[in-house]
Design a protein that fits this description.
Radius of gyration: 22 Å
Strand content: under 5%
Number of helices: 5
Distance between the termini: 40 Å
Structural class: mainly alpha
Helix content: 55-70%
Number of domains: 2
Largest sheet: none
Order of helices and strands: HHHHH
Shape: elongated
Number of strands: 0
């Protein structure tokens, strides 16, 4: 959905295969709308947030840190399904570790 919402095309998002086919048929039968959509695609795709690489990287890094912290917390409390394996956060895991490089620091 966000792939279509970011460039302002949320109305083209479908929840089911049937909806997707219906939207495609409607668009195919509306030559003016299709032409306008085609003409606007390039400018839409160059607008933030789609082309904001720094924001994308920052958000991805934040997500990785959150996932790592959750994994370490589950392991530390014994609720992790992989508990029998060696500790992924290192033997010196400390509270607040943000990732593998911080785990043993």
């Amino acid at each position: 959905m966000s792939q279509l919402a970011n460039p302002g095309l949320a109305e083209l998002a479908a929840s089911t295969d049937e909806q997707s086919v219906q939207l495609a048929v409607e668009l195919a039968h509306d030559a003016r709308r299709l032409a306008a959509l085609r003409a606007s695609l390039r400018p839409r795709m160059t607008q933030p947030p789609l082309m904001d690489g720094a924001r994308f990287a920052t958000n991805r890094e934040r997500a990785y840190r959150q996932m790592w912290a959750q994994r370490c917390a589950r392991f530390a409390t014994g609720t992790d399904a992989l508990r029998r394996q060696s500790h992924p956060c290192g033997d010196g895991m400390r509270a607040g570790a943000r990732g593998p490089s911080d785990a043993a620091a």
